[in-house]
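User: Fold this; tokens only.

Assistant: Input:
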Amino acid sequence: MEEILDPIILGQLLIGGLLAGALYALLASGLNLVFGVMRVINIAHAEFMLVGAFGAYVLYTAFGLHPLLALFIVVPAVFGFGWFVQHALVERVVGQPMLTSLLATYGLSIVLLNIGVLIFTSDFKGVPALTGSLVFGEFVLPKPRAVAALVSIVFAVGVYLFLERTRLGKAVRAVSEHPHVATICGIDTKRIRMLTFGLAGAMAGAAGTMLSMIYSFAPESGADFIQKCFAIIVIGGMGNFAGALYGGILLGVVEAFVGGFLSTQWAEATAYLLLVLVLLIRPTGLKGAALAR
């Protein structure tokens, strides 16, 4: 126990948790953005992440393109895919009972999963494009995790500033808060919803590209991540973009400490324990339900 309570070990656990939490936050905030604007829960969100991961894998193995450069191809491609999915499928269930959207996106996730298995098989893949660690005194930062966390923070903060500071971002928030009033004011709500879904897809694609450098992944890997995403958005506040950022960081840190003090099995259960705890103490989550505040 004395070894675990060593400040160096505690600091290392905190660093590991923050690095993991940044990636969680980027992935979950896209899911929360869609829910905040459309009240649609996208079960296929983790499959969008895997589209990004496999896209990075193909670009690396076929063309030798580093994942950091692959971002410039993968992110626009997944944005376009999200735009198309919104137009072809999700737009038809907006405003319908939530079960309808759950079933529609669940069906989409099954289709994407099976396409992934047909193309890539069920074997685990990885992109060993970045190795080694950065050493700061007594602390060690694995390069893949550090770079992934930095990119995740840049993307998440960029989207947050887009929602807060730009005219188009304010239109997204207006549709989130009062879609009928936004329509009366001249905002093309359908186009805003397509933009929102595409943006959420782009964030998932960026998270997947970064994930490809850290974890091995297969078409079936989405289940673990979507479960964590659901826990994060409930912890942070359903529909609250900033809340998902806080919730992702919190989950990453708590997972790291639970894994360090107990075991990896307990760490995997952390998301659900936090979920139950938040529901008991603060059912609206840490940040309530405003999209960008």
